[in-house]
Amino acid sequence: MENGIDMYDTFLIKYGEIGLKGKNRNIFEDALAARIRGVLKGLEGEFEVTKERGRIYVRCAGSWGYDEVISSLTRIFGIVGICPVVVYETGDFEKLKSDMLDYVRKEHPGSHETFKVKVRRVNKAFPMTSMQLDAALGEAILNEFPDMHVDVHHPDIMFDVEIRGQVSIYSKVIPGPGGMPVGTNGKAMLLLSGGIDSPVAGWMVAKRGVTLDATYFHAPPYTSERAKQKVIDLAKIVSRYTGPIRLHIVNFTDIQLYIYDQCPHEELTIIMRRYMMKIAEQFALEDGDLGLVTGESIGQVASQTMQSLLCTNDVCTLPVYRPLIGFDKNDIVEISKKIDTYDTSILPYEDCCTIFVAKHPVTKPNLKIIERSETHLKEKIDDLVKTAIETTETIMVK
Ligand code: ATP
Ligand code: MG
After folding, report:
1. Are the beta carbons of 158 and 118 closer than 8 angstroms?
2. Which of 255, 257, 329, 383 is deepest in the core (most CB within 10 A)?
3. Residue with more model confidence, 19 or 104
4. What pTM, to 2 d.p., does this model score?
5. Which residue's C-alpha comes closest to atom 4 of ligand 1?
6. Any idea what the Cα angle at residue 123 is, between residues 117 and 127, rounded to 5°?
7. Is residue 56 within 8 Å of residue 33, measured between CB atoms?
8. Which 8-state DSSP code applies to residue 180?
9. How far is CA 62 from the centre of its chain?
């Protein structure tokens, strides 16, 4: 493979969060490198992930696939950009110049764009300064490609040239998702339903470095095995970004039926939601989670008015994070399409909340009244909650 240009085998990983310093920066970089290693381990090929002077490099060997590697890297939080790098052997300036021209010819054929060359010399043995090299390589490109022009302030193309043991040249950046590596910001419990919103909410929190556990409430036989599988499938899609998700599947049927029998029907959804939060919080505390996450957004449905949110929130001691709180449905749909959960979310299987839903649910529940209604549950509810927790099925989704 002459010059190594026929195939990339190295990627420079760009990452963000520029505010990070010192120890935090190290933790961030180590977590990102570990996550990249973990993800690539599942792919065909051999991969070496190294941290070098504030950069992360991925070197690929064996029978790896470019598209597969790129699509995996673009799902890793913390990565801002992925630069395919072409690596050349070092030599004298003539060799560097001809490698540079070779790169431009193959990577930007027929370009009319403006450019700038930026050389970094880690290998100071090279007998010219970085600025001399910028100028000399720029001139060489201008001579060879008269349609290209220099613009040092706002170039269309930035040719980054790094001289170390070898010479690396890159000019393309494939955008990553940004955010922070999963695992750098604790864990949270996602209330995951089969809808559009909660997978997006989980994804957003995970993007800030939070590891996800999840709880799903189903109501067999009122909800089907397919509805449950749909939620597992959604967890699986989200886990492509977050890593494995511990999913608790709670049988909610008896609790729902009991509430249905004992409480005013228009309060059903709110009371159910309160028990979901309580049970999810139990699992959260067991799993070491630092908060709950839901897909709620103000005013989206009756159970998400400010009054309803107050009532649901009231049963929790852990903080409840609602990353979609100010989002319109359209914005949420857009993200769900981007992260690939949308097509699964819109499959028409019944949700446990819709089955018992009242025709005219309260939209402005009063906490005192809700609490009074719940006193009708006192005979059996503790046992039912205990049984629901004990019979919960827990699986690792990956
Ligand atoms: P989603 O699209 O996330 O289902 P939604 O618009 O259908 O949301 P609701 O049904 O009111 O809204 O649910 C609000 C939130 O409560 C959900 O985003 C989710 O976090 C949680 N939730 C609702 N139903 C369930 C369930 N069956 N299991 C687990 N969590 C649930
Ligand atoms: Mg729902």
Report:
1. yes
2. 255
3. 104
4. 0.91
5. 195
6. 75
7. yes
8. B
9. 28
Structure tokens that stand for 189 in this block: 């419990």
pLDDT score, position 19 = 62
pLDDT in tens, 113-155: 999 999 998 867 678 899 999 999 999 999 999 999 999 999 9
Please return the burial class of 4, using the count of CB atoms within 10 Å of its CB with bins 0-12, 13-18 and 19+: middle
- DSSP, collapsed to helix, strand or coil, labels residue 208 as strand
CA 9 → CA 65, 78, 90, 351, distances in Å? 10, 21, 17, 47
The vertex-290 CA angle with 299 and 211, nearest 5°, equals: 90
CA–CA distance, 57 with 32 (Å, rounded to integer):
11
Structure tokens at 369: 């009244």
Based on its alpha-carbon atoms, the radius of gyration of the chain, rounded to whole angstroms, reads 27
Strand blocks (E) in 192-227: 211-218
CA 27, CA 100: separation in Å to the nearest integer? Answer: 36
Nearest Cα to Cα of residue 203 among 169, 236, 251, 248: 236
Measured from the CA of 301, which atom of ligand 1 is nearest? 11
Q: Which of 189, 190, 191 maximizes ligand 1 atoms within 8 Å of its Cβ, making it the mutation to test the pocket?
A: 191
3 state SS of 202:
helix
CA distance 114 to 104: 12
202 lines ligand 1 (CB under 6 A): no
Q: What is the dihedral of CA 38, 40, 43, 46, to 10 degrees?
A: -120
What pLDDT, on a 0 to 100 scale, did the predictor assign at position 118? 97
Percent of the chain whose pLDDT exceeds 90: 85
Residue-wise pLDDT for 232-277, tens only, equals: 999 999 999 999 999 999 999 999 999 999 999 999 999 999 999 9
How far is the C-alpha of 252 from the C-alpha of 227, rounded, in Å? 14
| pLDDT for res 358 | 78
**Spatial contact of 15 and 32, defined as CB atoms under 8 Å apart:** yes
Compute the distance from residue 152 Cα to the ligand 2 centre, in Å.
Answer: 52
pLDDT, residue 122, reads 81
Nearest residue to 161 via CA among 182, 191, 140, 185:
140
Does residue 208 come out as left (phi exceeding 0), alpha (psi in the -120 to 50 range) or beta?
alpha
Q: Using one digit for the tens of pLDDT, what is the confidence trace for 80-93?
A: 999 999 999 988 89
Task: Ligand 1, residue 300: give the atom nearest the CA.
Answer: 6
Question: What six digits make up the tokens of 178?
Answer: 């940004």
